[in-house]
Amino acid sequence: MQKDWLTREGYEVMTAIDAAVARRLIRKADFDLILSDVRLPEGDGLSLLAWLKKEKPGIPVVIMTEYASYPDAVKAIKMGAKDYLPKPVHRECLFEIVKELVHPAVTIQHSLERLFKRDSAKAREALHLAELVAPADISVLILGANGTGKESIARTIHFNSPRKDEPFVAVNCGAIPPELIASMFFGHVKGAFTGADTDKKGYFDTAKGGTLFLDEIGTLPYHTQSSLLRVLQENVYMPVGANSERRADVRIVAATNEDMENSITEGRFREDLYHRLCEFEIHQPSLAECPEDILPLAEFFRKKFSDELHKETSGFSTDAERLMLAHSWSGNIRELQNRVRRAVLISKVPVIAASDLNIRKSTSDNVTKIVPDLRPIKDDEAEKQLIIRTLESCNGNKTKAARMLNINPTTLYRKMNKYGIE
User: Fold this and answer.
1) How many Cβ atoms are within 10 Å of 145's Cβ, its own excluded?
2) Residue 89 structural domain
3) Are residues 260 and 352 in the same domain?
4) What is the pLDDT of residues 121-143, one digit of tens each?
């Protein structure tokens, strides 16, 4: 069943009935990901994991476990498994993990799935702009660091547009081998090159009538940029080996984490293509820019993974919350999600501790604390903004905000009155 799901999404999948068959396949071929049950007809997934760490240490492994087998999942994570999947395995959970670990070149979506909502002012502004530009059939460029949710903005644009009933095709430009880019984008006809045994559709055909989302557009080779520019200018393209042009009927939404001005100055990206792609620009902020998103998102993921694992958790300790607010989150929402998932898995009590998050102090020691002790601050405006930010991160809970600021509630109320904070 899982093979069928993944094959339909464009992955190449091989299956093995037991550990012995799996080892033979792994020795013969290169794999991007191993999915293994803990219990196998012969051998077991944990032994296979131990063998993989010695024989093929670079292959990520995901272990599948029964809901009740938390010790197996914990042991697998400690042995080096990248993640776990609780059984019965749900299609959406499988795709989420596989996509994160394998980074496929293309995915196709037919319905909007909004997994979480960011409530910070900057994130709300990005979402507002996406909904505002959605009805206008113009190209959009989304800027932002990795892991900030740029694709969710692209999906919002598509599913609020007149093209919402047609495919949303997401392409990871950085995952396509340079020699295959023309064929993958525009398709090819039978006999166009060695191995072209049949006609094959490209991304422009697959997304016909819908939206083509070009993620990591800054990695696109320079020679391919000319072909893409022509499609955007003239709305026509030619499959590899074909004699006639086809009409392009897609909306282009692109995204990048690169500084496009530098890429243009350094000659890595065409300026005319940039202006074609950037008819409307949206900046998706990082978690570092929106610290008030951290705790609400952490709480969302805690509830999600608690339900997924049927494991009871009630929240985070104050130390855990302070650690999350102080952490730099260079991996953004993706990193936060992974750390909370792990914490839910290994937590021995309902309240998740700072140690469960596995955030090394060295990663945040040099980061300015988002919520330091309030008392040393001398600048009134800085103090006011710190109180506002902390209250937002605590959803207005003044008792919790006072704990985060290391002051008593009476002092917090007094300072709120002083600065006119409601």
Assistant:
1) 17
2) 2-102
3) no
4) 899 999 999 999 999 999 999 99
